[in-house]
Write a structure and sequence with these properties.
The chain is mainly α and about 140 residues long. About 80% of the residues lie in helices and about 0% in strands. The chain is built from six helices and no strands. Helix 1 packs antiparallel against helix 3, helix 3 packs antiparallel against helix 4 and helix 4 runs antiparallel to helix 5.
């Protein structure tokens, strides 16, 4: 991976991981805003806690150089759910936040997508390795 590509990837990895890891406090402490969001979408408390655990894993993977692509993929899946609920149930603005949560979700989506794209060669290598370890030695 070229140095510039690596630096750009790290920038987006840190942005996405920082947002994911920062929100854990609100999910795990049952902050009123978090409870409101998950109650509104019908997933309180199990959805809040499960999402928090998934975001913890995504944040860790994003900061693990050889598995950052996997963090990007997991992050995309998680944040796609958040965006779905913003578009269908919550709206852009949640409890008068001026759209902050929505814009953070867009930032995480873009960051995770870019990490996945920039680190795609690592993903392909890992998938080939996993397939070979599983006995799929196709030539």
């Amino acid at each position: 991976m070229k140095r510039t590509t690596l630096l750009v990837s790290w920038l987006f990895q840190i942005v996405a991981a920082a947002i994911f890891l920062q929100t854990l406090y609100f999910k795990f402490s049952a902050a009123p805003e978090s409870v409101y969001i998950f109650r509104t979408v019908g997933m309180e408390p199990w959805g809040r806690i499960t999402t928090g655990i998934a975001e913890l894993f995504a944040g860790i993977l994003l900061l693990w150089p050889r598995k950052a692509w996997l963090g990007g993929l997991l992050g995309l899946i998680i944040i796609s759910g958040a965006l779905f609920f913003h578009f269908t149930t919550l709206g852009i603005e949640v409890q008068g936040d001026g759209g902050t949560l929505f814009y953070l979700a867009i930032t995480v989506f873009a960051s995770c997508l870019l990490v996945l794209l920039l680190r795609w060669p690592q993903a392909v290598d890992d998938i080939r390795t996993w397939r070979n370890l599983a006995g799929g030695h196709e030539k």
